[in-house]
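Q: Structure tokens for this one, please.
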Amino acid sequence: MKKSKVEQLEAVLANCSKSIVTEFLFARFNAREIHHMRENLWALLAYGRRAVVKLEANPFNAHRAEFIRIELRKMDKQCDELDEVWRGVGAALVGMAKEFNAATTFEQRCELLGVNVVDRAQLPADSGLVHIASAYGLEDSAAGRSLPHKSGPLCAAIQAHMNHVMFTTPEGRAAMDKMWEKLTEPGGIFHGLPLYDKADDGSMVRRPPKLALVATTPTIQPESQQ
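A: Here is the predicted structure, written as tokens:
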């Protein structure tokens, strides 16, 4: 049976020397390959969905529209599988970051990540892999000056992994709840905004506002200040 692209890449890694830089280069290559595959699938899905809409306008094309829908469902499944591998690449990058940062200097990290010389001058000298690629989004900034901010494959893979952890694991949910509490506290950017909870039937119920006690004793000012 023919091996998938990911299996072929994993086989290449197994035969490589196990230095942390080699592992990073493999992860970066893997991220770019998967990024390219995902973009191609999304383009095919968009084209197929537009074709279905056009075919549905004519009842004689119903069988053709259904055939395309079947193919679209297959591609949706492929996208889900790629997304899972995509998150795995992000997890691998986050997992290797500490060792990678310890094994490289700041200038070496910038070279390996393709950071523009001008951007390097604006980065803190202790910036590591995750900060450069994800927090600052400067991956390949030397070669991709015209590309949208934070559009690099490494940035997208790391953020996909982080979002998955934050929204699907108990630890991530606890961190999100703690962050949200700080944002809604007095002085937070969301303080005073109406909040809603999702009921068991799916409806949204407004959360009652938090009441704060205030002093009721009137303050008497001196006559000179009245």
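A few notes: Helices lie at 5-14, 20-56, 62-103, 106-113, 117-120, 129-135, 153-168, 170-184. The chain has a mean pLDDT of 82.
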